[in-house]
Amino acid sequence: MTIQLEVCIDNIESLHNAISGGATRIELCSSLALGGLTPSYGFMKIAAEQSNIPVYAMIRPRQGDFLYSQEDLNIMLEDITSAKQAGLDGVVFGVLTAQGDIDIAMAQQLMNAAKGMGCTFHRAIDQCRDYKSAVEAIATLGCERILTSGLASTAPQGIDVISEMVALANGRFSIMAGAGVTAENAAKIIHSTGINEIHLSGKTTRPSEMKLMAESAKMGADHIDDFSIPITSTQAIQAVKNIINSL
Prior knowledge:
Blueprint: E1 4-9, H1 12-21, E2 25-28, H2 41-50, E3 55-58, H3 70-86, E4 90-93, H4 104-113, E5 118-121, H5 131-141, E6 145-148, H6 159-169, E7 174-178, H7 186-193, E8 197-200, E9 203-207, E10 228-232, H8 234-246
Parallel strand pairs: 1-2, 1-8, 2-3, 3-4, 4-5, 5-6, 6-7, 7-8
Antiparallel strand pairs: 9-10
């Protein structure tokens, strides 16, 4: 069985690192520290030009919950158009009602906008009221896969629910495990759940190459180091790839 290895990234350096490490698909984001937001059009276009594996864009207009206004939806629809124009292979989204159900009406509009592209329903499902009914709702949309941590903070903690989702999907679409996936736990997640797709960021940092480090002027929150650059670790991705290849 072939295991797909999706890597989420938020900068072009990480694109090259992920591909070098053995990624088979990219989830393109901005602001991974916020859980991943929609990438810029420029990032989407350059990634599409430079990647030799499929690239899916995160469609998430703001941080926070997945209850979106009409204005949020309008932004998401425009961003899907941008992803299509940039030449990307697919999009990633998730929308909920205030009661914690899948917002089918809104999701269907997003699916219609993405016609001809692949679609992943993301970890919004991990904040839903009833994951069993959510899986069935997503099945009606025609998404290729659901990204989930099994309603837990990390995939290893949500193994039992991920396994149930795989059974509920019953081959109609894929269940992809993500959040907290590492080389140390990837094999257990795969064996215990029966998934054939796994998702991670392989995050690390590198020091800035700036000669002058003017630390008195902070660009973000006080806890953020402007001179430590978050990137995907080629070694971390390769380590998971090695585990997959050994199965």
